[in-house]
Structure to design on (175 residues):
C-alpha cells in the first residue's frame, strides 16, 4: 500500500492544480444547468416550498412573485457560473464567482432546518428523508466546494496584489 501511495503522490495530476480546476469546472456546469431550469414554469412552481421556507430568500415571493423569483435566481446562477468561468483568466472575477457561489449555497443550506415534511412519515420518519429534503442536502457538498474555491481564489488573487496594496510594510521602509 505504501508503494501505491508513493507512486500516486508522484503523479503530475496530484502535484498540480487538477483538483482546483476540476472543482471549478464542476461548479460551472452545476450553475449553468440549474440556471437554465429557472426559466421554465414547472421549475418556478417547484421552487415554492424551498423559497417559502428559506430564511434568507423568503422575501423573493412578496417582492418578485413566483416567476420573478425564479428569474432572479436563474439570473444570479447564470452570473455566478459566468464569473466562475471567467475566473480561469481573471483571478479577481474568480473571487467574485466563488463569493457568489458561497452566498448561493449558504442561502439554500439554511433552508434545511426549516423545510417542512423533511422526514418521510410513511417510512416511519427520521432517518427516512423525503426527496425534496435530500435534494437540498447536496448543497452542503456544493457549499464546501464553494468555500474551497473561495480560499484558493483569494490566495491566487492575493499573490497579484503588491505588498503596498496588501498593507504589508517592508522592513526597509520602516527605518
Amino acid at each position: 500500500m505504501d508503494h501505491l501511495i508513493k507512486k500516486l503522490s508522484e503523479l503530475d495530476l496530484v502535484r498540480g492544480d487538477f483538483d482546483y480546476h476540476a472543482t471549478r469546472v464542476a461548479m460551472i456546469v452545476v450553475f449553468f444547468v440549474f440556471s437554465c431550469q429557472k426559466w421554465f414554469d414547472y421549475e418556478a412552481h417547484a421552487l415554492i416550498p424551498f423559497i417559502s421556507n428559506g430564511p434568507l430568500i423568503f422575501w423573493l415571493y412578496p417582492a418578485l412573485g413566483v416567476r420573478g423569483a425564479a428569474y432572479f435566481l436563474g439570473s444570479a446562477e447564470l452570473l455566478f457560473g459566468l464569473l466562475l468561468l471567467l475566473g480561469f483568466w481573471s483571478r479577481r472575477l474568480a473571487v467574485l464567482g466563488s463569493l457568489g457561489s458561497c452566498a448561493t449555497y449558504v442561502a439554500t443550506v439554511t433552508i434545511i432546518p426549516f423545510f417542512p415534511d423533511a422526514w418521510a412519515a410513511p417510512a416511519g420518519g427520521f432517518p427516512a428523508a423525503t426527496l425534496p429534503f435530500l435534494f437540498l442536502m447536496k448543497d452542503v457538498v456544493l457549499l464546501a466546494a464553494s468555500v474551497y474555491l473561495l480560499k484558493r481564489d483569494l490566495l491566487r488573487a492575493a499573490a497579484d496584489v503588491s505588498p503596498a496594496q496588501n498593507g504589508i510594510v517592508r522592513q526597509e521602509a520602516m527605518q
